[in-house]
Amino acid sequence: FPMADDLAPVAQDDGPAPVVRIKYTPEFEEAMGRFRAILLRGEVGERALAVTGEVIDLNAANYTAWAYRRRCLEALGSRETWARELEWSADVTRDNQKNYQVWFHRRRCVEAVGAGDASELAFVAECLDADGKNYHAWGYRQWLIGRFGLWADELDFAAALLADDPYNNSAWNERFFVLRGTRALNDPAAVSAELDFAARELRRDANNVAPWSYMKGLVDAGPEPDAAAAWLCARCRELLVAHPGCAPAAAALVDMLDRPGAREAAAAEAAVMCIALATKWDTVRSKYWAMRHAQLVAGGDGQQTSAL
């Protein structure tokens, strides 16, 4: 965009005696000088938009440039302007996928254009293909799904990611997000199906903590926690027979047995598991399991000192 002579760059003020002056490139100093001039003038429009683009191209983490860019877009106002911006932001996002600002900016573009659809989900999926645990991309995807009601295929999407990487905690979290967002956590059949899904994943690696955490979350959030806890206890015992010393299974069993209203026999079984975890299976956390053991033998108040 052509810059008129009236837009004289404004130099950075480092004070009268800067100690260690940053050695910016001439290109960066010139772009930032123009941006400061725009800010001082309060100018919004196509020229100001072009200046913010220069600054963002040189430093995509410049929050002020992103915020001022949105101010320019709002002043320009048209849906076509926002549509062009959405297209422009795609490449910037691909090049800066761990940058919060690009995802927040894209959210504003999508809202302005009304472009919350399957194509936008596909764009996020492309970014997650590069890094399936990108927190910013997942946060944006969840906003997109909740804002535009794009729940239909999300469980399948998360399942595909887990088929590729069963240790992807973000994909497990996405399944829980969908269950909560669609209120499926109120449906005993849906919760039972998810418990079965997680249990099948343990066939690949019984020591994968992610599905164990997921199942414990389903027990606590589901409509029939006592029945679900009993089911999970049975799975833990079965797996400990097949995989003796499996620490995640033993830990889950302790948590399920040590629930409010549990019978004395359940507490005794949990205490035995704590001893095994503290002394053989999870010695890195031996002090934690000693504390749990003390609480169990003291009836839950933790006042008795464990013998471990």
- How many strands? 0
Number of helices: 15
Rg? 27 Å
- Please report which band the strand proportion falls in: under 5%, 5-15%, 15-25%, 25-35%, 35-45% or over 45%: under 5%
Tell me briefly what this model is.
Helix content is 69%, strand content 0%. With 308 residues, the protein is an all-alpha fold. The protein starts with 25 loop residues before the first helix and ends in an 11-residue tail after the last helix.
Question: Can you offer a commentary on this structure?
Answer:
The chain is an all-alpha fold and 308 residues long. It has helices spanning 26-41, 46-58, 63-76, 79-95, 100-113, 118-130, 135-148, 154-164, 169-181, 188-201, 209-221, 225-242, 247-257, 264-281, 286-297. α9 (169-181) packs parallel to α11 (209-221) and α10 (188-201) runs antiparallel to α11. The chain is elongated and about 85 Å long. Residues 301-307 have low confidence and may be disordered.
Top keywords for this entry?
disordered C terminus; 69% helix; 15 helices; mainly alpha
SSE layout and pairing:
Blueprint: H1 26-41, H2 46-58, H3 63-76, H4 79-95, H5 100-113, H6 118-130, H7 135-148, H8 154-164, H9 169-181, H10 188-201, H11 209-221, H12 225-242, H13 247-257, H14 264-281, H15 286-297
Helix pairs in contact: 1-2, 2-3, 3-5, 4-5, 5-7, 6-7, 7-9, 8-9, 9-11, 10-11, 11-12, 11-13, 12-13, 13-14, 14-15
